[in-house]
Design goal:
The chain is α+β, with helices and mostly antiparallel strands. It has helices at 22-30, 33-36, 42-55, and strands at residues 4-7, 14-17, 62-68. 36% of the residues lie in helices and 20% in strands.
Length: 74
């Protein structure tokens, strides 16, 4: 079954635990100097958002998605 994960939605229905890969995410984001350098607090802001999403679901860090699953006729 194909699923589509939409990021940045106002109505998430799926939270993914990213605790194990959070450090890798931060290092990868830091590599995008043209997006990060003019705004040095971006990494801190992203960390706070991921921490808040995680705390709401008893996780250290999480990301939220709206998952769309196809409708199946039976």
């Amino acid at each position: 079954m194909t699923e589509v994960y939409l990021f940045g939605t106002d109505e998430p229905n799926e939270w993914v635990d990213i605790t194990g890969t959070f450090d890798l995410k931060q290092r990868a984001m830091a590599c995008h100097r043209s997006q990060i350098t003019p705004q040095p607090d971006v990494l801190d802001h992203v960390a706070a958002c991921n921490r808040d999403l995680g705390a709401a679901h008893h996780l250290a860090y999480a990301e939220a998605f709206k998952v769309v699953r196809p409708f199946r006729f039976t």
